[in-house]
Amino acid sequence: MFVNKAPIKSYLSVGKSQLQSLIDGLHKLGYQTIGPRIVDGAIVYGELNAISDLPVGYVDWQDGGKYRLEPSDEAGHFDYVVGPDSLKKFLFPARETLLQSIRVDGTWNMATPDPAPHPLAVFGVRSCDLHALAIQDKVFLGGPYVDPGYQSRRNALFVVAVNCRRAAATCFCHSMKTGPAVEGGFDLALTELADRFVVQVGSTRGAEVMTNIEWTACTLQDIDDARSISKTLRDQMRTRAHNAETQRESELPRERHLDTTDIHDLLLDNLEHPRWSQVANRCLACANCTIVCPTCFCSSVSEVSDLSGDNVRRERAWDSCFTAEHSYMNTGTVRKTTASRYRQWLTHKLATWTDQFGTSGCVGCGRCITWCPVGIDLTEEVAAIRGDES
Description:
single chain, alpha+beta, 4-stranded antiparallel beta sheet, about 30% helix
């Protein structure tokens, strides 16, 4: 049966071959399509013009400071988890021109770049990253001063989310209540079954895109089957994390869990805890954790001139609280030690972020653990300060 109109919040059954029709339909509506690709041995976002571009049949194995991809006969279209990329780089670019100044005949002409972006559709977005997107919305759109570039890119974004069927050892979204089930903030959400996808329509734009795609209405059993995938995974994550904490099986990657009970006061009441110095002995202050984090938003602004001096750009670039320059003031660097910088990052992420934005700054994606060169694990650091480390 082919039906044209799909109401918001409806569940549709779509054959796996129809994913290509979804990409083609987005192209017809003027969207550039981005999705998971394998680049240099990792899953990153790249141009997605055909379903064959997806890393179908691959899974990722992640642990502290470790990441590898492996082919799997049992893996589907999206059975890898998150790589180093997130939506952040598309909405809050790593480098952006804020102001252009050009000198003509001794007169400076200043202009802001046109914020109108090309419409962008991103495939494969997970629940943790949708929560991260909501956090970044608060940062750039929620206060009295709205970032116009972020706002324009956000309005032009189409999200095709995916419900996770597996988790990496570094995932702890179940602890942060950010997954693994996709709950909102998407245009379309996919759940992969054995022979088809269940597609949940989340917006009027999502319904419009589904207009020219062949689908059938889901049965109640289809919906239950789709929902049970995320529920089963969440229960498995909780069980595995508990077993890993009690058994400490050193030969296997330890599943993560973060106890968030009174975490705000726990961290702020322990600013002189010896653990800060202990972790600093390992930390390279390389800023990898802040770069891969989907919610970190620190930046610096500088004036960049060409050789003639007649063309000057004011550029905003990603920065990190792990750099000495980030806390530099007229009297010098405020946070002079690696211990103080790590403490600043962790206490802001898990404690004072709540004071600032009303939510935690962590979504449990585990990227900071995987991509730390020395495998520093924030769940272990919090457990040590709490006194739970055994």
